[in-house]
Write a structure and sequence with these properties.
Distance between the termini: 48 Å
Mean pLDDT: 80
Number of helices: 7
Number of strands: 2
Low-confidence stretches: 24-30, 227-231
Structural class: mainly alpha
Strand content: 5-15%
Number of domains: 2
Strand order of the largest sheet: 1-2
Oligomer: single chain
């Protein structure tokens, strides 16, 4: 056997120690990862996905009931406002059509032809012939109304102006309905973003710092410490 110098012996000891230490670190990291998965850490994608569907449900998933209740209540109020404004808008539009059938004597079957019903409220036209003349002068021949059921003739300018006010009022409610719908979308977007931050903060509370635990081996009568590393 070749003679081992002090340097060679020291190198062998150092190699053995480093190898043992690296294996111990690898094992600690693996155990730490398993501990993280089993510790109750939350998924930010799950939380944000829940909030995107029903605002507040993502916070409920994190166990934060207060923001969950606030967002859910706000969402329910917005849905109620949307249905109310949308229903009121349709009701006002239908009322204006009924008003026009009484005082403008129209029998049109164009409930969704917004252009037609807007013409009835135009202050420049008291009857269909006025509108058709204007369309003809503008060479909009394909827009001229020729069906008798589409003809109208207002009893008075007061009735025409009242009809125009009803249409305008219905338009306000429709705009309000659209704004509420946008608020519902915005509420989901904000909830989607904020709950991801809350999830990160939630997980950091669990894995924000190393956990040092004393250990003792009664057989070898040795003491030591173990480290749980946060990720």
């Amino acid at each position: 056997m070749a003679f081992l110098t002090t340097k060679k012996i020291f190198a062998i000891i150092l190699f053995v120690c480093v190898n043992a230490f690296s294996q111990e670190i690898s094992l600690d990291l693996l155990n730490a990862q398993k501990t993280k998965e089993e510790s109750g850490a939350k998924s930010d994608w799950a939380a944000s996905g829940l909030n995107l569907i029903v605002p507040g449900s993502g916070y409920f998933y994190l166990g934060e009931n207060k923001p969950s209740a606030v967002l859910l209540t706000a969402d329910l109020i917005l849905w109620g406002a949307f249905f109310y404004t949308n229903f009121t808008s349709l009701q006002r539009y239908n009322s204006s059509i009924g008003y026009a059938k009484i005082y403008a004597h129209t029998q049109s079957r164009r409930p969704y032809d917004d252009a037609y019903w807007s013409y009835l409220g135009n202050k420049n036209f008291m009857k269909t012939q006025d509108l058709n003349w204007a369309l003809q002068n503008n060479r909009d021949f394909d827009m001229i109304y020729i069906n008798e059921s589409d003809f109208w003739s207002w009893d008075s300018e007061e009735h025409r102006d009242e009809y125009a006010k009803m249409r305008t009022n219905a338009g306000y409610w429709k705009t309000a309905s659209t704004l509420v719908l946008g608020s519902l979308a915005l509420n989901r977007l904000v909830s989607f973003v904020t709950v991801r931050v809350a999830t990160k903060r939630y997980n950091e509370k669990i894995f924000s710092a190393p956990l040092i635990t004393p250990t003792a081996d009664l057989e070898t009568k040795t003491l030591g410490v173990s480290f749980l590393l946060g990720f």
